[in-house]
Specification:
This protein has five helices and 19 strands. The longest helix has 8 residues.
Length: 281
Amino acid sequence: MTTAMQASPIPLDIKKVVTFIYYPTNLSNAVPDGTGFLVGLNSAKDTNRIFPYLVTAKHVLRPSINAWLPLIFLRLNCLDGTSDMVLVPLLTSGPIKNVFIHDDPTVDIAVVPVAPNRKIHDFLLLPTEFITSEADFKNLEIHEGSDVFFTGMFVQHLGEKRNTPITRFGKVALMTDEKIDGVFGKTDLYLMEANAYGGNSGSPVFFQIGMEREGGFVFGGPRFKLAGVMSGSYPDIEFIKTLSVSTNQYVTPNLGISGVVPAYKLKEILFSKELQSFRGE
């Protein structure tokens, strides 16, 4: 039976926190790499100041265990209906370091300070109060079967003039206190019953919470809170045999299960001593 909550559309403004990330070849032939989203953190010293950050999956910026990308392009939508490619150097060490990760090397999240231009770019910053904490999981009664959705890059249609993020819906499939195999080894993940595919890594994943519960991103109707960061999907292996060769070959179809890094891991990075020091707070 479909309920009113399940049938409710998402607020379109949520897509304004999403940006597309491109590989750093050059501006003329940069290739799509993954999804990122923008978070705004209020200054502890100046109530009028907000620190903007790009959040994405760490493996989007670090395609191999020993190598980070030297730079990326962010494709940001513009107020005039077009889009803009913004160059972002990636510095993982030194006095001007701008890539921040979790102390736990298995956590697949990276945070990069950015500065979109409000006079040019059409974007929103996701406030940190909408990031789910560990306590929220209990208080909001989040468990297997809870509604979730994510919005991110659809490589088959990026958008000719501007980013056109796609949205996919699903359910929480598994929440456990055990470590689960992830991109960088066994780590804290929860699993979502919703297909993810190339380009979705780094997408924001949201809980869709009924009005009977407390807190959240209120847009009239269901409420939304950031559940976590899309890390990737789980493939199956199916062996195939052809008559023309003697060895088995295989394909890896998507199981329809995606791994999501819990949002409280993002909070731990944003409020880490290292990033607080970078902000001068």
